[in-house]
Amino acid sequence: MSTSTDHDPSRIVLSGMRSTGRIHLGNYFGAIKNWVELQDQYPCYFFAADWHALTTDYADPSKVASNTIEAVADWIAAGIDPERCVLFVQSMVPEHAELHLLLSMATPLGWLERVPTYKDQMQQIENKDLTTYGFLGYPVLQTADIIIYRAHYVPVGADQVAHLEISREITRRFNNFYGEVFPEPKPLLTKTPKVPGLDGRKMSKSYGNGIGLTDSPEVIRQKCMQMFTDEQRLRKSDPGRPEVCNLYRFHELISDGETQERVARECRAAEIGCVQDKRLLGDLMVDYLAPFRQRREELMRDQDTLMDILVEGSVKARERASETMDLVRSAMRLDYRRVQVEVGAAQ
């Protein structure tokens, strides 16, 4: 197990995010903020996982490409620098698909059926038919995404370590069959604070309870007014409990220390009401997100440059991926150029 403090500039970090559109504060604090810090510590490969989006949106893929552009614009606005990392689109590197196919030949079906997220999403997503190989085989493609770059680390929170374990198992199985082609990817533990949604559940696009990183000031203030608060505080005169209040979770994320202390003190003393605090939080969040919104507007005014960034990053990614596939074909005795040489020598 590794942490974000014992970095080694010779070790590759790989992470990606499904192409499901613009990102929210949960995505930012849970992943993107860590990516921004990691790109100065390791060689990093970050990708938009558009093929993974198809595991649930295969019936109507019309928005996948535009969602990819929207998401990547948000990433760059949030601080991902294409000059300091390799930023690319999954489907622009077809070697992912080739390695996925080869890994699928050796991955036991039972391993995929026991993945907790597979069972959970089958139960939670009721409006789509998920009885497809693509959905079941999601972890195999995920493994290919990681090891195609011979990545050493995958940044995850402590609660996500188990999600990486099947990729480690598939990697070990491949290496046992064909030789030590891939380093076994290790979790790179990063701080991933739980970001609540407007309704108190985890912030998620599927729940529709998020605040977008580049929402307009009007939308941000409106959403803050919708936030759930301490359910036991019915009147302003009732003492509050910031430790269980959604509003205070956001203060801990975006407010300075002095503001956090003042709000907590006044909440417990019933000196500030929930409506007043929502308005305060709305103003603070508008200011906090203003730089992201401005940078994104600039990016979207020049989408040709944005596409050039993705194409250039995908070319760089393909260079590394092609090297890996040469190693894979050689290890699996699928390098036909070498076979021809051996046959010729035998004659």
* The CATH topology of the largest domain: Rossmann fold
Uncertain runs: none
* Strand coverage percent: 5-15%
Order of helix and strand elements from N to C terminus: EEHEHHEHHHHHEHEHHHHHH
CATH architecture of the largest domain: 3-Layer(aba) Sandwich
How many β-strand runs?
6
The dominant shape is: elongated
Question: Count of helices?
Answer: 15
Which CATH class of the largest domain applies here? Alpha Beta
Largest sheet: 3 strands, parallel
Q: Roughly how many Å is the radius of gyration? A: 23 Å
Instruction: Give the helix proportion (percent range).
Output: 55-70%
Explain the layout of strands and helices:
Layout: E1 2-3, E2 13-18, H1 25-38, E3 44-49, H2 50-57, H3 64-77, E4 86-89, H4 95-106, H5 109-113, H6 116-124, H7 133-136, H8 138-147, E5 153-156, H9 161-178, E6 186-189, H10 217-225, H11 246-254, H12 257-268, H13 274-300, H14 303-331, H15 336-346
Parallel strand pairs: 1-6, 2-3, 3-4, 5-6
Helix pairs in contact: 3-13, 4-8, 4-14, 8-9, 10-13, 11-13
Would you kindly provide a written description of the structure presented here, covering whatever features stand out?
This protein is mainly alpha-helical. It folds into two domains: 2-195 and 303-343, Rossmann fold (3-Layer(aba) Sandwich); 214-299, Tyrosyl-Transfer RNA Synthetase (Orthogonal Bundle). The protein has helices at residues 25-38, 50-57, 64-77, 95-106, 109-113, 116-124, 133-136, 138-147, 161-178, 217-225, 246-254, 257-268, 274-300, 303-331, 336-346; strands at residues 2-3, 13-18, 44-49, 86-89, 153-156, 186-189. The strands form two sheets. The protein has a three-stranded parallel beta sheet with strand order 1-6-5. A three-stranded parallel beta sheet has the order 2-3-4. Strand 2, helix 1 and strand 3 (44-49) form a beta-alpha-beta unit. Helix 3 crosses helix 13 (274-300), helix 4 packs parallel to helix 14 and helix 11 (246-254) packs across helix 13. The protein is elongated and about 85 Å long. The model has no long low-confidence stretch (mean pLDDT 90).
